[in-house]
Design a protein that fits this description.
Blueprint (H helix, E strand, L loop, with lengths): L4 H19 L7 E7 L2 E6 L2 E5 L6 H13 L13 E3 L2 E7 L2 E2 L10 H12 L14 H14 L6 H9 L16 E3 L8 E3 L7 E3 L6 E3 L2 H12 L5 H13 L12 H26 L5 H13 L4 H8 L1
Antiparallel strand pairs: 1-2, 2-3, 3-5, 4-5, 6-8, 7-10, 8-9
């Protein structure tokens, strides 16, 4: 029998404490729960972070992802151990603590650093192994849609589902991706960057759960979607895109219009964001806030574009 969530957090904290004490004889014993949601439980004890991965995590795929992070320490945060451990049926990994992006300082958001790290990751040859997993971005979008459908009817769900139906099958996780030779992060947003060593080390990418080979434009899709929805200022989007191109990122052309490459992934991330927003609002019994409504409105506009046009962009 698996432990209740609260007990799992306690046990995960104990694992983090034991690992931290083994790493340092001067542990200051500060502890905190950093995240507790279906995508994972993350706790910190001093300079050590422990993560309990989702129930359905494949151990072989996770081990391969940990190996990739270990082999590319200038791009991805390396784990403290090369393989996950088991905690009552949940796979657990251990990581050094780093300083995250400050959500209260949007003007200091490291868009250039994020773009540079992505470009370097995309230019990194995948390991020559058949065990390298597929990037899980489309599967994560499909999971958000399943969650939306599960919460029951809601007026905002209609445009979100219509927009979802306009996407090609690969973007809905229903068919193989058209290009799978590029190493991708799979879930890029500013919460996936930390400074390590803390507090002044370089920015690194974290969270390897969705890492794998796939369409590199997916990693640019969330900032592209925010820009298209009016949630990311044009100047910040321009900085992000310019930094990615300057580092030789292959997801978009070196100059000219990037949208033929970005359109489908950006639409998919818009739908995913809207689906998650509506599901959370329904679960909390509250109306959509302004930002949530903006992504639903974007889905409503997307649903008016003929599917064949979206398919053409996907080629």
């Amino acid at each position: 029998m698996k432990p209740a969530p609260a007990l799992l957090v306690q046990q995960l904290t104990a694992k983090a404490r034991a690992t931290a004490h083994a790493r340092s004889s001067t542990c200051p014993c500060g502890a905190a729960t950093l995240a507790d949601h279906p995508d994972g439980i993350v706790v910190r004890h001093a300079d050590t972070v422990a993560k309990a991965h989702p129930d359905d995590t494949d151990p072989t795929e996770l081990t391969t992802r940990l190996t990739i992070a270990t082999d590319h320490p200038g791009i991805l945060l390396p784990p403290l151990a090369p393989a996950p451990t088991d905690l009552h049926g949940r796979l657990v990994t251990f990581w050094p603590y780093g300083i995250p992006v400050d959500p209260d300082a949007p003007d200091a958001a490291p868009w250039e650093a994020a773009a540079t790290l992505l470009a370097r990751l995309h230019r990194t040859p995948p390991p020559p192994s058949p065990d390298v997993p597929t990037m899980r971005g489309p599967a994560k979008a499909a999971r958000a849609i399943a969650r939306l459908r599960a919460v029951g009817p809601h007026p905002a769900a209609t445009p979100v589902l219509r927009a979802w139906d306009t996407l090609p099958a690969w973007a809905r996780g229903e068919a193989p991706m058209p290009h799978t030779g590029t190493l991708c992060h799979g879930d890029l947003h500013l919460g996936q960057l930390i400074r390590h060593p803390a507090p002044e080390g370089p920015w690194l990418l974290i969270d390897v759960d969705d890492l794998g080979v796939g369409v590199p434009a997916w990693d640019l899709a969330r900032p592209a979607a925010w820009y298209a929805c009016g949630l990311l200022p044009p100047g910040e989007w321009a900085r992000f895109l310019a930094a990615y191109r300057a580092e030789g990122g292959p997801a978009v052309p070196v100059d000219g219009d990037p949208w033929p490459a970005l359109d489908v992934p950006a639409r998919a991330l818009t739908v995913q964001t809207a689906a998650r927003a509506v599901a959370k609002a329904v679960a909390a019994g509250r109306p959509l806030d302004e930002v949530e409504q903006s992504v639903v409105d974007a889905c409503d506009r997307m649903a008016t574009v003929p599917p064949q046009l979206v398919q053409e962009y996907a080629k």
